[in-house]
Design goal:
The complex is a heterodimer of chains A (about 550) and B (about 110). Chain A is about 70% helix and about 0% strand. Chain A is an all-alpha fold. Chain A is globular. The two termini of chain A are about 30 Å apart. In chain B, helix 1 packs antiparallel against helix 2 and helix 2 packs antiparallel against helix 3. The longest helix of chain B is centred in the C-terminal third of the chain and has 32 residues. Chain B is elongated and about 65 Å long. Classes of the chains: A mainly alpha (about 550), B mainly alpha (about 110). At the A-B interface, helix 5 and helix 6 of A face helix 2 and helix 3 of B.
Chain lengths: ~550, ~110
């Protein structure tokens, strides 16, 4: 049974290999393979989540070497939740792409599987250097996916995206090797154990190493001022790819949460960098909300929405309270689902606004090329999908839901997450019995950015759905509509089941702050099979 | 030896950062390569510099840390070299595509 931990990495890797063997074309076969891999991966992720609920942190030693020496994988509540989130987004993005976007270029399916593999690996690894390796795997796949569909704007954004991430990777290596040089370990659990042993030698070098590492993660998590690359890149990516990328910034957040709670949440180094994370997070959230007001394209607004949620999460992590982090975990899951759904919805809305036959800037997905594979209707127009009268209303409803979710207004799930964070922040008391200033800053920043986001999305909503009436009903296929509905329905379900899921989020934060659970599980993981004696091996 | 290595890392990083800030994509590639060399040297140096010490156990040499060099940075550097090599190749492909599509080798795709 513990072998299940390695399944979310091996499953997409083998699927991608099989897809490559299938060669160019054969898209239906690849689609079936990809969808079954995504659904199977989702099942595995849910099983792992149920499993850690029962047993706590579970560690796995793929190379069968004891923990500080060999490679270790570990799954705790946070990584299991992130896995479920990743695979939900993967399944929805694949379903959306199956209608036409996977035809816009080569190797969409293998790349998306490798992307899922890198994401799963980054969430599962218990080792800083393997975190780097899985970061590179997911980044390599994301470079390919970002350029999927080709076209000027994608390639131009791609150059910046690749260059920034390569520079951030160099910082990652410098930070990781500095920490190794001082502590003599790269295993996160061992690192946590060594840093909590009383006085730490070379404290300033550890701080410097951690800060360099944090800059790398913050660049990936889209914190201001390292987020200038994100909006052009995400807004020009094809919609299913952007929907999958919604979880990519959360990998940076995940790495920060994981390492920060293991290294600096307690012990002699407690609280290092918390103020920095808090300030940068709040500034990111407010500036991103302003960016959303300033942008007129729906896709850029969706991309700014990702930055808003990243900033909110960073501020919550920097606040440094267990209860605030609990609300943040809830907010993380629901805001990622909402951003991803919004990216997909934007594609439907844009296609409806400019007319179903005009396909966007993807040069290899023009209407004439597409017509070779699509049935033509009576007027020789490619039949992308049938008009459905109520679909305008459904689309508008979905837009309203997205606007509420991204701005964090009641009654949907991001509001529950925000409420959790804000009430926990206001429950903190200083020695004098008053609420600390940073709690008021937190409340002001979150509510202010929510208000700005609401203004921006209301304005585009009015312009999109009310101002022009001379339009045909949108043509939406079931495979495109369902993922949007599924992602938004997941947010509604999170709202309805707010009590148990909030309980789970609080338990997640609690287990993050209780570092001994993680340390014991990883360092105490026993080698499973007896190694044969040298004589017996011969 | 420490001084030579530190100067080498500093010169490589400085040149790399300067090239990274230049407007042409070719300078970008060279700059990122120089930075990755500097990072590799830095990782290599993190285990301590030593001459004539094995990273693996050898017969006849006492088994303590005084007589061996740290093998982990060497393993890390090997992985980092492979990854940075692959990523540079990927970046070159993207840059060639950008050159072909925008008609210029400026990193922003326009001469402005």
């Amino acid at each position: 049974m513990p072998h299940l931990i390695v399944a979310p990495i091996l499953l997409p890797m083998l699927t991608a290999a099989m897809m490559l063997l299938l060669g160019e074309g054969r898209r239906p076969a690849k689609l079936v393979l990809g969808m079954s891999s995504a659904l199977l991966g989702l099942a595995v992720a849910v099983t792992l989540l149920a499993w850690v609920q029962e047993y706590g942190v579970v560690a796995y030693l793929p190379g069968n070497w004891p923990a500080p020496f060999g490679i270790a994988l570990a799954v705790d509540r946070l990584s299991a939740e992130m896995l479920v989130l990743t695979w939900v987004l993967g399944a929805c993005a694949l379903s959306f792409a199956s209608v036409r976007w996977h035809r816009a270029g080569v190797h969409f399916h293998p790349l998306s599987q490798l992307q899922l593999m890198g994401l799963s690996g980054a969430f599962l690894t218990a080792d800083v250097f393997n975190l780097f390796v899985f970061f590179e795997i997911l980044l390599a796949a994301s470079y390919g996916l970002l350029l999927h569909g080709s076209g000027r704007s994608r390639v131009r954004a791609g150059v910046h995206y690749v260059a920034i991430n390569l520079a951030a990777s160099s910082l990652f290596l410098i930070g990781a090797s500095m920490i190794y040089g001082i502590t003599g370990t790269l295993n996160m659990a061992e690192l946590s154990a060594r840093l909590s042993e009383g006085a730490v030698a070379n404290r300033h070098l550890i701080d410097a190493g951690a800060a360099i590492l944090a800059v790398a993660f913050l660049a990936k998590a889209a914190a201001w001022p390292l987020n200038f690359w994100l909006v052009p890149a995400y807004a020009s990516a094809t919609p299913p790819v952007a929907a999958l990328f919604a979880v990519l910034t959360k990998v940076g957040i995940y790495a920060l949460v994981r390492l920060w709670t293991l290294m600096f949440a307690g012990g002699p180094l407690a609280g290092f960098g918390a103020d920095g994370l808090f300030v940068f997070g709040l500034v990111t959230a407010v500036l991103a909300a302003l960016g959303m007001i300033a942008s007129h394209r729906l896709a850029s607004q969706a991309a700014w929405g990702v930055v808003v949620s990243a900033g909110t999460l960073l501020a919550a992590l920097g606040f440094g309270e267990e209860a605030v982090l609990g609300g943040a975990v809830f907010y993380l899951v629901s805001s990622t689902l909402a951003s991803s759904g919004f990216f997909l919805l934007v594609d439907l809305v844009e296609r409806w606004r400019v007319g179903a036959t005009v396909v966007d800037e993807a040069p290899f997905l023009s209407a004439t090329l597409e017509a070779q594979e699509v049935n033509l209707d009576d007027e020789e127009e490619p039949l992308v999908a049938l008009p459905f009268p109520a679909s305008t209303a459904l689309m508008a409803l979905a837009f309203v839901a997205c606007a509420l979710l991204i701005s964090g207004l009641p009654p949907l799930s991001t509001f529950v997450g925000k409420l959790g964070m804000l009430s926990a922040a206001l429950a903190v008391r200083e020695e004098t019995g008053s609420v600390p200033t940073r709690a008021w800053l937190f409340v002001g920043g979150l509510l202010g950015s929510g208000l700005l986001v609401l203004i921006a999305l209301t304005r585009t909503g009015i312009r999109t759905f009310w101002s022009e009436m001379q339009r045909e009903p949108p043509r939406v296929r079931a495979a495109e509509g369902l993922p949007v509905v599924a992602l938004l329905a997941a947010c509604v379900a999170l709202t309805l089941a707010a009590a148990p899921t909030m309980e789970l989020a609080r338990a997640t934060a609690q287990s993050l702050y209780d570092r001994r659970g993680y340390t014991h599980a990883v360092l105490g993981a026993r080698v499973r099979m007896p190694t044969p004696a040298p004589e017996a091996a011969r | 030896m420490e001084v030579v290595l530190a100067i080498a890392i500093g010169v490589l990083t400085g040149s790399g950062v300067w090239l990274l800030l230049r407007p042409r994509t070719f300078q970008l590639v060279v700059g990122l390569s120089l930075i990755s060399y500097a990072v590799n040297l830095f990782i290599f140096s993190i285990g301590g510099l030593a001459i004539d010490k094995e990273p693996i156990l050898v017969d006849g040499v006492p088994r303590d840390l005084v007589h061996y060099t740290d093998p982990v940075p060497q393993a890390l550097v090997l992985t980092a070299i492979v990854i940075s090599f692959a990523m540079t190749a990927l970046l070159l492909v993207v840059i060639l595509a950008s050159r072909g599509m925008t008609g210029t080798d400026h990193v922003d795709g326009t001469e402005a």
